[in-house]
């Protein structure tokens, strides 16, 4: 297992760059004013920072770090990017003529429900995984569940 982890380590940086590029390209549009390229970068950075904070907090309080936890950042960044796409889709459905405050209100009321439901189900799923008698699964679920 450790050899597999070490073998994929060089590809982690490449994967991170590809995730950022994919996110930027996905939020682009033909209109440079309405395109949200920075949103693609910020979505990945925010998910990455949240994952790093959760990892740091759990390591600080003494929960052991196992090698399988190295895949968690990719899982969490994927969930974070998905939430970013939900918010952006809701924003694009609002009327351009409306004031920003009204557009944000409509965006959050529309996207907030979806994001809340997916976050709660993810958290519940990983919380159930904490109850398993297999220590590796427990640790994985603790690290993954604390992100949500």
From TrEMBL:
Signal peptide: none annotated. Pfam families: Patched (PF02460). Keywords: Glycoprotein, Membrane, Transmembrane, Transmembrane helix. The keyword Disulfide bond does not apply. The chain crosses the membrane at residues 12-30, 37-65, 71-91. It is a multi-pass membrane protein. GO terms for cellular component: cytoplasmic vesicle membrane; plasma membrane. It is found in: Membrane. Its main location: membrane. Residues 17-144 form the SSD domain. Belongs to the patched family. This is Patched domain-containing protein 3. It comes from Armadillidium nasatum. The gene is Ptchd3_3.
């Amino acid at each position: 297992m450790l050899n597999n982890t070490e073998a994929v380590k060089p590809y982690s940086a490449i994967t991170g760059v590809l995730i950022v590029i994919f996110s930027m390209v996905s939020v682009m549009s033909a209109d440079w004013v309405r395109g949200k390229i920075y949103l693609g970068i910020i979505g990945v950075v925010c998910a990455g920072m949240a994952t790093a904070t959760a990892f740091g907090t759990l390591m600080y309080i003494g929960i052991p770090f196992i090698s399988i936890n190295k895949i968690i950042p990719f899982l969490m960044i994927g969930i974070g990017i998905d939430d970013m796409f939900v918010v952006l889709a809701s924003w694009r459905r609002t009327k351009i003529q409306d004031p920003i405050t009204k557009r944000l209100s409509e965006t959050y009321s529309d996207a907030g429900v979806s994001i809340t439901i997916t976050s709660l189900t993810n958290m519940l799923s990983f919380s159930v995984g904490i109850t398993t008698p297999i220590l590796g699964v427990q640790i994985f679920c603790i690290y993954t569940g604390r992100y949500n």
